[in-house]
Design brief:
- The protein has 13 helices and 6 strands.
- By secondary structure, the protein is α/β, with parallel strands linked by helices.
- The protein has a 6-stranded mixed β-sheet, sandwiched between helices.
- Strand 4, helix 4 and strand 5 form a beta-alpha-beta unit.
- Helix 11 runs antiparallel to helix 12.
- The longest helix is centred in the middle third of the chain and has 19 residues.
- It is elongated, with a radius of gyration of 23 Å.
């Protein structure tokens, strides 16, 4: 069921009540603006006719939603939100003076809205795209994780609800080093429910038009599909990690690209691909290439130490291991406060 621009809280309540009565899993998705009534100081979801003075009469009290869902069986209900809030309400949520918690698994985002922050429904757009492009619907936790990674939001004005992956460190200018050869052709995509689906082409088109978050969302979703089909230590999963690394490098995040290629190389080795396998060598070589573009000393040392361990086994071209040793030796040693 969908309610677009509802204006009557009782109409919304009836819809929630009808949905809450169904058996099986229930997903409630809420997009809108949060407000607090000035008399009882309770959270409300603003509706089409809500103004600052009419919150109590024209908005949906959040505790109505909680009350309608409290009688459902345990672990059967998920609530996902993409919300905006003014400074006072947002700070109250951050400080846990107000809460959206209830008898459900809660995921999503609350964005600060003030003179400097103009929230957009990036989380919603990312989630909708994931659902359109994935061969199978991810679990709710995975769906949230993928949407968080793909959404373009200002990190200083966002409150994530539910588990959120770490944002990649912002990159610095690159250093002059030769790129290790052309990228190999990507292997075939995992099976899709629709034969016309071509995730690699969709990713390439997204990158070419600057839609890196969308490209990353597609790749991550297919990685999750490969994980379910082939297991956590498989070349198929490693492939999609490598695709995400390519996207990260195109997005000027060399540290994140390096980390992903290192992870893919280890995964391929764990999957019993030999150290001389072309895909293993390519993953380590690309990690090495990206590592030279990481200028944050602490991050470079962390990634370089792992790269050096891999270079002991996957030696690559002549002098590759020595190159890592030389750069590590030049990095500052006093990195931690």
């Amino acid at each position: 069921m969908q309610l677009a621009n509802p204006y009557d809280p009782h109409t919304v309540l009836t819809t929630i009540r009808t949905a809450a009565a169904v058996q099986g899993q229930l997903l409630v998705y809420v997009v809108g603006h949060l407000a607090v009534d000035h008399r009882q100081h309770r959270l409300h979801l603003a509706l089409a006719r809500t103004t600052a003075r009419t919150v109590r009469y024209t908005a949906l009290p959040w505790h109505w939603l909680t009350a309608e869902l409290q009688h459902r069986p345990p672990d059967s209900t998920s609530v996902m939100v993409d919300l905006a809030a003014g400074t006072d309400v947002w700070q109250a949520l951050v400080q846990r003076k107000q809460t959206l918690d209830g008898p459900y698994a809660l995921h999503g985002a609350v964005q600060l809205q003030d003179r400097r922050h103009r929230p957009r429904p990036s989380y919603t757009h990312a989630l909708a795209h994931i659902l359109r492009t994935t061969p199978t619907r991810p679990a709710t936790d995975d769906l949230h994780h993928l949407a968080v990674r793909a959404a373009k939001v200002e990190p200083t004005g966002i409150l994530w609800l539910g588990p959120a992956p770490l944002d990649p460190t912002q990159p610095s200018p690159t250093v002059d080093v030769s790129e290790p050869g052309p990228r190999p052709t990507q292997p075939a995509a995992p099976p899709s429910s629709a034969a016309e689906d071509d995730p690699h082409r969709a990713i390439s088109q997204a990158i070419q038009t600057g839609r890196h978050a969308e490209a990353a969302a597609i790749a991550t979703a297919w990685e999750q599909s490969a994980l379910r089909r082939h297991g956590p230590h498989s070349p198929e999963v490693a492939h999609w990690i490598e695709v995400r690394a390519v996207i990260a490098l195109e997005q000027d995040a060399p540290d994140w690209a390096c980390e992903l290629w290192l992870r893919a190389a280890v995964m391929r080795l764990t999957a019993d691909q030999p150290e001389t396998h072309p895909d293993v060598v390519a993953a380590v070589d690309r990690a090495h290439y990206a590592w030279h573009r990481v200028t944050n000393p602490e991050r470079a040392r962390e990634l370089g130490t792992e790269l050096l361990t891999l270079r002991t086994h996957v030696t690559g071209s002549s002098g590759a291991r020595e190159d890592v040793q030389r750069r590590l030796a030049k990095l500052p040693t006093a990195l931690l406060p």
